[in-house]
């Protein structure tokens, strides 16, 4: 079937990006995935017209340096293909830091994404010193910060975007579980919360690693 042929079915893959892959930009990640689809000879649908191109879309791309076990990418197939075979072929064509974990027909629209959950690991701190600082920080009725919007920067209360923000000591480290609002207009980047904490508590840690663990709809069901 020609590249611009009739698309038979939509596919959404969920993949992880860990280690060095956290530093791949969104544009380079898109190119990486397109190359992998070509190398694996998966029958992907191309747009029609004078400049046909492989049509792939991502939900909620992450900031550079963030790891994730819940990235998603949608594309269309021009032929039926068993999902286990698709996963195997893609993983053979991808670098080891990027792994396809699941493939299925999309069940939800991108607009259904309402929350994103993260695991933050705090480095260079003593848990018994850090935890009271975090508890006092997150207990504040207001955490004001400058947030970038389509119309520019505006001052917002970060507490309005936080669904959960608990911290605990795990194997000698501090691990923070965050549930933040997500979406085109209502999303909160965890780096804003980290920056606000650091401004109030300078020199309280050396750095924080961020891992996205899941995307959720408004009823807290997984985005699939």
TL;DR?
It is built from 4 helices and 10 strands. The protein has 224 residues and is α+β, with helices and mostly antiparallel strands. It has 2 domains: 9-106, Pseudouridine synthase I, catalytic domain, N-terminal subdomain (Alpha-Beta Plaits), CATH 3.30.70; 112-217, Alpha-Beta Plaits (2-Layer Sandwich).
Fraction in beta strands: 35-45%
**Helix coverage percent:** 10-25%
Overall CATH class of the largest domain: Alpha Beta
Q: The CATH topology of the largest domain is what?
A: Alpha-Beta Plaits
| Nearest-integer average pLDDT | 93
> Any idea what the CATH architecture of the largest domain is?
2-Layer Sandwich
Q: Any low-confidence stretches, pLDDT <50, length ≥5?
A: 1-5
Organism: Acetanaerobacterium elongatum
Domain DUF2344: 11-190
Pfam family, one: DUF2344
Protein name: Radical SAM-linked protein
Key phrases:
224 residues; alpha+beta; Alpha-Beta Plaits; 2 domains; eight-stranded mixed β-sheet; two-stranded antiparallel sheet; 4 helices; elongated; disordered N terminus; DUF2344; Radical SAM-linked protein
